[in-house]
Design goal:
With about 900 residues, this protein is of the alpha/beta class. Among the domains are: about 1-45 and about 135-175, no CATH class; about 50-120, no CATH class; about 605-645 and about 730-913, no CATH class; about 650-725. About 45% of the residues lie in helices and about 15% in strands. It is built from 33 helices and 24 strands. The strands form 7 sheets. Strands 9-6-10-11-5-14 form a 6-stranded parallel β-sheet. A 5-stranded mixed β-sheet has the order 19-20-21-22-23, with helices on both faces. A hairpin with a 2-residue loop joins strand 12 (about 530-535) and strand 13 (about 535). It is globular. The protein binds iron/sulfur cluster. Iron/sulfur cluster binds next to helix 24, helix 31 and helix 33. Iron/sulfur cluster binds near residues 861 and 907.
Length: about 900
């Protein structure tokens, strides 16, 4: 068997010949596997995370306050064990076997102590290489005839040098392949090739394009340029080698646009959706609840929770962003009944399913009741339950979805590595998870196509001469730094036969691999270097510094600019007057015809009678229909709404709901009357009781100031509300009373926040608002446009003709009303509320008739167009004029709610606000 071996040859095809027998190209992992097979050393190798767990147990068994690693180990046991294990493996790779380590440093002593612990530690890659060396030493033959090295033996890691020497001792013919000699001297490429070897200054021809760095603003521009180059002379591509460094996602799209085969190189990533299931389940084990993580778990495309259950919980979170509150309990009830009808009643076969009560109980436990303190940690039993549940879910997909299979194996691995612990603190569990998931997985949907050009993934894989080499993504990709060892440690280890590799050795191998790509290219080397990748600044590959310094060697400053210009191109420079050209390849470009974006329409037409009112109406619907019929149509007729996952209330909206609930609970007992201080005290208690279910984000770390601020604000709001109620001698009769009426033959429903009773026995409807828009609410009452108050007045009128109404602004503690009960503080109102209602009703009917005739007006756009064609220069002036004109016609004007409308992109208003 003839083997080509090199540091960068893992993942390379076995041979590049049309037909070959007994030939193999192997990197370190491939060679390790082959030698183990030949020497009878194959075994079951464990996940790296399991070795960390084993090493952690060894460290735990000897940990004491005097141990060198004690402080780090106490703070973060997993990361400390991981780091120490990597040092231990480095020593093993450098020749450490059973010998005692020198005691020149506390670190070496600690490593020696851990090694002496009699607890299992599975073999890592370095142990396996040592076993190979031992077997070869004992004379077991590997039967390898020829081994060709793609790099000099002297720059390989010590353990490989030892194995190669042992193989040579068995008769394996070891050949070191030399870097090919440069061909000719007439091009810039060959001049650089000569100069890199000889250090003689090269002659750079400013008219030559055999070696070019092609820069582009983004990876998209660079990909388009590369695809044009390949597409402009497809017949010549058979002598081209393409180094695809990293992912080819964007390049593949450009290649496909030009009818070329795609490369199909996908980078490993831990962020693939299926690989997020386990981390999100783990992130939802902790107290306090992080609603954002909960929403992420419930919104996964394949959540481990049934879709209907995830939907109910998401909609509960959209109204109360926390767990265990009213909305949450209602959602759990719906889940129970849906589970009965959609799952149990339709189940067939013998599979035993949990009952609806068991199903709900398990969800409650995993998402709400069984949460753990991050510092104390999750008990292993609870983690096991969650992992088993997850494995059952993932197992159902594993045979047809490779990413789900990967997630399944990661879950099982996590369970395995944590099995020795009683309680696992959050930090340790998350570190374990990082180790288990590692670099993640590649995209299984990406396919490679057969292509005329040869594709490799690192420059070190360009093993044979090629006419043209294209290096895609010629950018710096720092591969991490080697462990640091003091010179004292190095020296004492060397005296014990453990030779640590110099820190420069890795760089030497890398640099050699870059040169391999350059020296194997005979005609043209094109280096594609985008300046931005995924929006982040990217820098040219460090090999460019070598090429650049060689090219400029011996040149005076005035000539440097010309040389660099000769060696670089920006993709903009490649196209001129409909022609594109790069390095002897050309293409004609055809300009795309452009079309103007359509102007947004102020209305659209639908079939007359197609739009009708729904089963019931409310104040919100009425005001929306008057403000903008398009908004109402999209929301109530078409049923379009933002996803629950994107509607998590926060800030004022969340606090407003919480404050409403506190007031509702304060007055839940009929005719309960409070004094301001007692009410404030109760509000404080309720605030703390309800935060977890209605404003859980405030309990997260970093929100301490915010929670105190909101607590103070809500307690003060309640104190002022109760104070106002007492001052006006009002009695609270009911909170959240449902009021009903009929408009245009359709039931009309409203909920009054508080129904109060005046000393004269008249009702006072109070609407609570958490907003800072005092001016706007005052104006509403003064102008007679407070449609919400007019609606309460109308709904109450059938039973109680003399109803008072008002807003209580919780954040400011201010009562706004035109009721004479307020004395001097009563606001003057231009028109009585029943007139406001009549006007509102007329506007509503007019807007509704417009809809029923088939005309759906987008009033925000209509007003914008009116503004463009009028003498008025500001929108609010125009709106005032429209308000006055409608008032003259006994109708109510409501401003289109464009500022907080979800449909601005749909109607065309988006971007113009
Ligand atoms: S953005 Fe304005 S005009 Fe468009 S639908 Fe919403 S409210 Fe109407």
């Amino acid at each position: 068997m003839n083997i080509v071996f090199g540091t960068y040859l893992d993942s390379l095809t076995w041979s590049d010949k049309p037909a070959a027998i007994g030939e193999l190209r192997l990197g370190p992992m491939g060679m390790l596997g082959l030698l183990e097979t030949r020497l009878g050393l194959t075994g079951n190798y464990v996940h790296p995370a399991r070795r960390i767990s084993q090493y952690l147990q060894r460290m735990q068994s000897i940990d004491n306050p005097g141990a060198w690693f004690h402080r780090s180990f106490s703070a973060d046991p997993w990361s400390t064990a991981k780091q120490m294990l990597s040092w231990r493996d480095t020593l093993v790779a450098s020749g450490w076997q059973d010998t005692a380590l020198p005691s020149t440093s506390a670190r070496l002593q600690a490593l020696g102590d851990i090694e002496a612990v009699d607890l299992p530690l599975s073999a890592g890659r370095e142990d396996r290489l040592q076993s190979i060396a031992l077997s070869l030493k004992s004379g077991i033959p590997a039967h390898i005839e020829t081994l060709t090295l793609s790099e000099p033996r002297s720059i390989l890691p010590a353990i490989w040098q030892q194995i190669l020497a042992l193989l040579a001792g068995q008769g394996t013919h070891i050949v070191e392949s030399a870097v090919p000699a440069p061909q000719g001297t007439t091009t810039n490429l060959s001049a650089i090739q000569h100069a890199l070897g000889s250090l003689n200054p090269p002659h750079i021809d400013t008219g030559d394009d055999s070696l070019l760095l092609i820069s582009a603003e983004t990876e998209w521009d660079a990909a388009e340029t590369l695809a044009r180059y390949l597409a402009s002379a497809p017949a010549d591509n058979s002598t081209t080698t393409l180094i695809c460094q990293g992912s080819s996602d964007i390049l593949d799209q450009a290649l496909q646009r030009h009818g070329l085969p795609q490369i199909g190189a996908s980078s490993d990533s831990p962020w693939r959706t299926a690989l997020q299931i386990l981390p999100l389940v783990i992130a939802n084990c902790w107290e306090p609840v992080d609603v954002n993580r909960l929403v992420e778990l419930l919104s996964l495309p394949s959540p481990p929770i049934r879709y209907f259950a995830a939907r109910h919980l998401l909609s509960a979170l959209a109204s109360e962003p926390g767990v265990g509150g009213e909305a949450w309990k209602n959602a759990m009830e719906k889940i129970g009944s849906d589970y009965q009808t959609k799952v149990l009643d339709q189940a067939s076969g013998n599979r035993k399913l949990p009952s609806a009560a068991e199903y709900v109980q398990q969800l409650e436990a995993f998402l709400h009741t069984e949460r753990f303190d991050p510092a104390t940690g999750i008990p292993y039993r609870a983690l096991e339950e969650r992992c088993q549940w997850l494995m059952e879910f993932l197992g159902a997909y594993a045979d047809r979805d490779s990413l789900m299979a990967e997630a399944l194996s990661q879950t099982s691995e996590l369970l395995h590595v944590s099995a020795s612990m009683n309680h696992i603190p959050r930090i340790t569990l998350e570190r374990m998870l990082d180790s288990v998931i590692g670099v993640g997985a590649s995209n299984p949907l990406v396919q490679s196509h057969a292509a005329a050009y040869q594709v490799v993934h690192t420059p070190g894989q360009v093993l044979s001469p090629t006419s043209t080499t294209i290096w895609w993504n010629f950018t710096s990709n720092h591969s991490g730094s080697a462990a640091w060892w003091s010179s004292q440690e190095r020296q004492s280890l060397a005296e014990s036969g453990i030779i640590l590799e110099e820190t420069s050795a890795h760089s030497l191998r890398e640099s050699r691999s870059w040169q391999l790509a350059l020296q194997n290219t005979s005609k043209r080397l094109l280096l594609f270097a985008p300046r931005q990748i995924c929006g982040e600044t990217a820098y040219p590959h460090p090999f460019w510094d070598e090429i650049r310094s060689v090219a400029l060697c011996g040149e005076n400053h005035s000539h440097e600019e010309a040389i660099l210009t000769a060696l670089t191109r920006h993709e903009h420079q490649l196209q001129q007057q409909g022609r594109w050209s790069l390095a002897e390849r050309r293409m004609s470009l055809t300009a795309l015809s452009t079309a103007d974006l359509p102007e947004p329409e102020e209305s659209c037409t639908v079939q007359a009678g197609a739009i009708a009112l729904g089963k019931h109406l409310s104040y919100s619907q009425m005001s929306m229909l008057i403000g903008c019929p398009m908004n109402w149509t999209l929301k109530y007729h078409a049923g379009l709404r933002a996803a629950d996952a994107h509607s998590l209330p926060t800030g004022n909206q969340m606090i407003g709901s919480l404050c409403h609930r506190i007031v509702e609970l304060l007055y839940a007992e009929p005719v309960k009357q409070w004094k301001p201080d007692k009410a404030a005290q109760k509000a404080r208690e309720l605030f703390h009781e309800l935060t977890r279910s209605m404003a859980a984000e405030l309990l997260l770390e970093g929100h301490e100031v915010e929670i105190r601020r909101y607590e103070r604000a809500i307690v003060e709001a309640v104190r002022k509300l109760v104070d106002a109620i007492c001052r006006l001698n009002l009695k609270v009769e009911e909170a959240e009373r449902k009021l009903e009426g009929t408009l245009q033959g359709t039931p009309f429903i409203g909920f009054a926040d508080l129904i109060l009773r005046t000393p004269a026995g008249e009702p006072f409807v109070l609407d609570l608002k958490w907003s800072y828009a005092t001016k706007y609410r005052k104006e509403e009452i003064e102008q007679g446009s407070a449609l919400q108050l007019a609606t309460y007045n109308w709904l109450m009128a059938s039973e109680e003709p003399n109803t008072h109404t008002g807003y209580f602004l919780l954040a400011q503690g201010e009562l706004l009303s035109d009721s004479p009960l307020l004395g001097d503080e009563a606001l003057p109102s231009a028109v009585p509320l029943d007139t406001t209602w009549q006007m509102g009703q007329l506007s509503f009917v007019q807007s509704l008739q417009g809809l029923q005739s088939g005309r759906v007006e987008a009033r925000g756009i209509l007003e914008r167009k009116l503004l463009e064609n009028s003498d008025v220069d500001k929108l609010d002036k125009l709106q005032s004029e429209r308000r006055e004109e409608m008032a003259r016609n006994k109708m109510l004007y409501i401003k289109p709610p464009c500022g907080y409308c979800d449909y601005a992109t749909l109607c065309g208003m988006g971007g113009s606000l």
